[in-house]
Specification:
The structure holds 2 protein chains of 2 kinds.
Chain A: H1 2-20, E1 34-38, E2 46-47, H2 49-56, E3 70-73, H3 79-89, H4 93-104, E4 113-114, H5 118-127, E5 131-136, E6 145-149
Parallel strand pairs in A: 2-6, 3-4, 3-5
Antiparallel strand pairs in A: 1-5, 1-6
Chain B: H1 4-27, H2 29-37, E1 40-55, E2 74-89, E3 92-103, E4 107-124, E5 128-138, H3 170-173, E6 174-186, E7 189-200, H4 205-212, E8 219-234, E9 239-253, E10 264-277, E11 281-295, E12 305-319, E13 324-334, H5 343-349, E14 357-370, E15 373-383, E16 416-427
Classes of the chains: A alpha/beta, B mainly beta.
Chain lengths: 150, 428
């Protein structure tokens, strides 16, 4: 009886897996470009994707001059955060979350600073030395600097 | 069953930590921002689980995390943790986590220091890092061991028991000593390596029962042990591979009139891990080969032994959307790879053959109610009792060797059984 129940559950799950192989329609925003932004005092203009991943993965903690990197992110469920992870880091948002949790709960690293809105992101990155974050291109002004990803 | 004192203590610590953070804000509101920027962080989690086991025969019962075979199942599965980390300098971090875990007879819910160490990064460049950690660090083994007691980081409520033993767990968790670590990042991937020279934790009853078969008057003694892991991650973690291993040494300090002598126990596991992460699904597999050596106890109940166990699991995770996730896993455990069906063991000891293996088929669902609240449910169909807790199922605890004229123990466990589990977790 129980074995049959298991078989049944497995069948259902496999069916769902097959159905799910169809490409995911992303619920993110269209026609919006996201840019990596840093505090105006940061001297560099370009960064490699690897280094950007290491920074947002909370593994690279200092700029080349030794000053601390301060990472700002929007909540996991924000469309802009998801777009940023996919387009600029080329990873999925859930991977960032797992990477952070592995650091936070083993004591080997720390979580990024969480901001609740793009406006807060803009203000915090513009006023915090060593800050890095991301914004929609339309929301970027002179008080902040764009970092190009190579 | 509720260990109220320990929960109360955790709350006290939590409040204390919050007060420490908030203290300065009473004096000057802008200080809190400064503190946060200077790298003081507090995180934590708590969870409540329910387990229920059933089998075909009412006379036989298998218990998992408490009296799960009882009519109402068991609520004795609870995890509480709070951690603080402080980074006063860019290359210096202090971290500590307090943990209280209750899971049947093996974990009674006292508060212990899960980890507490000083982390100094000696060398750091854009592509390389090298450093040292001093204190109690999590044992760098496999994919999930470092955060195995944090529900949000696990693929299921109960980790694959063939490899992540919960019945003999403490010496596998975290150890006291020195850890060296290094990282190298490049176009073709990231390599992370950790190596520890440490003293594992062996002071609890479940470890003693795991090592000796039952409780004895003396105490286990921790001895210098080695743990290491090398991980290779490609394309930002799309592919992940790891090789990890350990050489755990445990001694024994006999009491007066102890039936046992100063014996030794060596546990040397070697693990291979692989994972592929796509947008909707992840595939994970881990394989373990464990060498176990026990000698010089000079007792019929704890004979010299030398054997090799083997385990593996294959696991698929599917994400329907950010809220719902399903897991399917097949997990296999063999206590002795030369006696996979346990026949030789049964002939030699009179204990059941099915206590030497376990094959577990698991299906589960995860529901992220909010980013910080999660609920899970899962079902395990298990053939074999290889990883069932000896303390929760005390059939053989009192009788180390069953007499040949009475080969059937009084409270037998059932070979084929079902395990249901539900868990609610909160994080901050």
């Amino acid at each position: 009886m129980a074995a049959r129940f298991t078989d049944f559950l497995c069948c259902i799950l496999l069916l769902l897996l097959l159905l799910g192989v169809t490409p995911a329609t992303s619920g993110t925003i269209d026609n919006v470009s996201v840019e990596v932004v840093v505090h105006p005092s940061i001297a560099i203009r370009d960064i490699s994707r690897n280094s950007l991943r290491a920074i947002f993965g909370m593994r690279l903690r200092a700029w080349q001059d030794g000053s601390p990197i301060r990472v700002f992110v929007l909540p996991d469920e924000e469309p802009l955060h998801q777009l940023f992870a996919k387009v600029k880091l080329n990873i999925f948002p859930y991977q960032l979350r797992s990477a952070w949790d592995r650091l936070i709960f083993s004591g080997t690293g720390q979580a990024p600073f969480l901001v609740s809105s793009e406006e807060e992101m803009r203000v915090r990155v513009a006023t915090t030395p060593g800050a890095i974050g991301y914004l929609k291109r339309v929301n970027i002004d002179d008080g902040i600097q764009i970092l190009h990803v190579e | 069953m509720l260990n109220r004192t320990s929960i109360f203590k955790i709350y006290l610590i939590l409040i204390g930590m919050s007060l420490t953070v908030l203290h300065s804000s009473w004096i000057n509101a802008s200080d809190i921002d400064k503190k946060v920027l200077n790298g003081l962080q507090i995180h934590g989690f708590l969870s409540q689980g329910w387990t229920k086991t059933t089998d075909g025969d009412k006379k036989e019962k298998n218990d998992f995390f408490g009296d799960s075979s009882g009519k109402e199942g068991s609520f004795a599965f609870r995890e509480l943790g709070v951690n603080a980390s402080h980074r006063p300098l860019t290359n210096l971090q202090l971290s500590m986590q307090l943990l209280s875990r209750q899971a049947g007879e093996d974990s009674k819910g006292g508060i212990r220091i899960d980890y507490g160490f000083l982390d100094y990064t000696v060398l750091t460049t854009e592509t390389k890092e090298f450093g040292v950690r001093l204190g109690r660090t999590k044992n760098p083994l496999l994919f999930y061991n470092d955060t195995r007691d944090v529900p949000f980081t696990r693929p299921s409520i109960i980790l694959p028991q063939s490899i992540y033993f919960d019945r003999v767990r403490n010496f596998g968790l975290a150890s006291d000593g020195v850890q060296l670590y290094g990282e190298s990042r490049s176009e073709w991937g990231d390599i992370t390596a950790q190596f520890s020279a440490v003293f594992p934790q062996v002071g609890d009853t479940s470890t003693e029962v795991g090592v000796l078969g039952r409780k004895y008057p003396g105490d286990l003694k921790t001895r210098l042990s080695y743990i290491g892991r090398i991980m290779y991650e490609r394309d930002g973690g799309r592919w992940r591979f790891a090789v990890s291993g350990a050489h755990f040494n445990i001694g024994y300090d006999p009491d007066l009139n102890d039936p046992l002598s100063t014996g030794s126990f060596r546990f040397s596991p070697l693990y291979f891990s692989a994972q592929y992460n796509a947008e909707r699904w992840s595939l994970t597999s881990e394989y373990a080969i464990r060498h176990i050596e026990r000698e010089n106890f000079f007792n019929r109940g704890v004979p010299d032994s030398n054997f090799t166990g083997e385990s593996f699991y294959v696991q698929g995770i599917y994400r329907f959307n950010p809220t719902w996730e399903a897991v399917l896993r097949y997990d296999v455990y063999y206590a002795d790879r030369k006696d996979r069906d346990g026949n030789e063991f049964q002939a030699a000891t009179g204990r059941p053959d099915h206590s030497r293996f376990a094959k577990d088929l698991t299906v589960g669902l995860r529901w992220n109610i909010t980013p910080s609240i999660m609920m899970r449910g899962e079902y395990h169909r298990v053939n074999g009792t290889g990883w069932l807790s000896t303390l929760d199922n005390p059939t053989f605890q009192s009788m180390t060797v069953v007499q040949p004229d009475n080969p059937q123990p009084l409270n037998p466990t059932d070979q084929h059984w079902n395990l249901f589990a539900v868990q609610v977790s909160y994080r901050f």
